[in-house]
Amino acid sequence: MKRKALALFIGLTISTGALAANKSTSSDLEQRLNQLEQRLIAAEQRAATAEAEIQQIKTTPKSAQTTAPVQVVSEQSVNDKADNQSPKLSLTGYGDLKIYGDVEFNMDAASRSNGLTSVRRSANTNWADGNNERWDINGRLLLGFDGYRRMENGQFAGFSAQPLADLSGDMNLDDAVFFFGQENDWKIKVGRFEAYDMFPLNQDTFVEYSGNTANDLYGDGFGYIYMMKEGRGRSDSGGSFLMSKTIDNWYFEFNTLLEDGTSLYQDKSYHGNELTKDKNVAYLRPVISWSQDEFSVAAAMEAQVVDNAYGYKDANGQMVDQSSRTGYGLTMTWNGLKSDPDNGIVANFNTAYLDAADETDFTAGVNALWQRFELGYIYAHNDIDKFDVNSAMDTCEDDCWITNAGTYDIHTIHTSYQFPNVMGMKNFNIYLGTYVSWVSADNDGSDSDDNTRYGGRVRFKYYF
Description:
Elements (H helix, E strand, L loop, with lengths): L1 H21 L3 H34 L15 H5 L16 E15 L23 E17 L4 E12 L4 E12 L3 E7 L45 E10 L2 E10 L9 E2 L2 E2 L1 E2 L3 E12 L2 E10 L5 E4 L5 E3 L3 E11 L9 E12 L2 E12 L2 E12 L4 H8 L9 E14 L8 E14 L10 E12 L1
Antiparallel strand pairs: 1-2, 1-21, 2-3, 3-4, 4-5, 5-6, 6-7, 7-11, 8-9, 10-13, 11-12, 12-15, 13-14, 15-16, 16-17, 17-18, 18-19, 19-20, 20-21
Helix pairs in contact: 1-2
């Protein structure tokens, strides 16, 4: 190559001149020849690298060549540079943070809603009672924030906060809870949350006897569908402390709910008497559950253990305790979706019994879900020992169904169907739900010609 010959000629010229000028020995000449050889090798390597780079540039399309971006900056933008920095999300690094939510909006049509049961027929916080037919749109938007940190030894801690915005313009809250424990072993939770569900209704969309909280479950003058929810939690007037333990197929849970006991009752009325609070109540709610493959069974008890927490004053001005309430429940579930996600059947059998001041209630329900279609039946029996008819007439007028002591049977049939993956979106579902309820009584405290209620709902459910 020309480069090699030129380099050799220059090297020899320099070496010969130096040899003649300095009259060097033959050993110096050998040393210089070795240095010249190393320089030639280095020159060849640099030449080969340069030729490879030139060839790569020639074969690379112009569209793939990187060009420096040109940014047009005005004088105003330069002055406001400090105010136009890109937004940043900074995390503490203490575990994982999850942000999620769901939209649940309903279009409802129902017969006149007063009278049969203490049912919250709206997804909003209001009780939705009244004498007229109901046509409305209601619902809420939930935004959730979950934090979780797990250590290498399986110990963990975290929190969950779920604010709600409903269509009535109110801001509410589902869960606000802190928890910690050992994975697959034990766990402690404190705050606002719901404990174990002892009366699951499967894919129900309209029969919301329990509402969204442990409050306003009992409407005086209406049938009561007891479902072991009084000590479950998510109260608007108190908080819960829960301890749980898992051993093989067994699960143990003990929840304590401290709250204003009168918040259980609509309008703070019970058996025609106005209730007065003296101190907070304490519900103790132990649950034991066993599961194997598709089958699970759970038994539970909830008891209000504070005496004279609230009551009413009799004709002599003496306080009559009304805070004694103890309930028992049993639920069994077959979840065939675990082994057959496409055609499996989910079936629940639930029963609950309440022994309360001057009243006992028994409830049983069965429901089944198959290929997104759900059908269920609920039976409730209320036995009321005492009822102040005169006081009830002052507050109920024509709105109450139960205005006397006696026994009342309440029947409810509910059904729903799910349309999944609307518009091909796995996070968007639509539900159709209907129900019908009626009451039979053993006395003249009800109008047998007007004992049926019914309704239908379209629910839009979107997850994000």
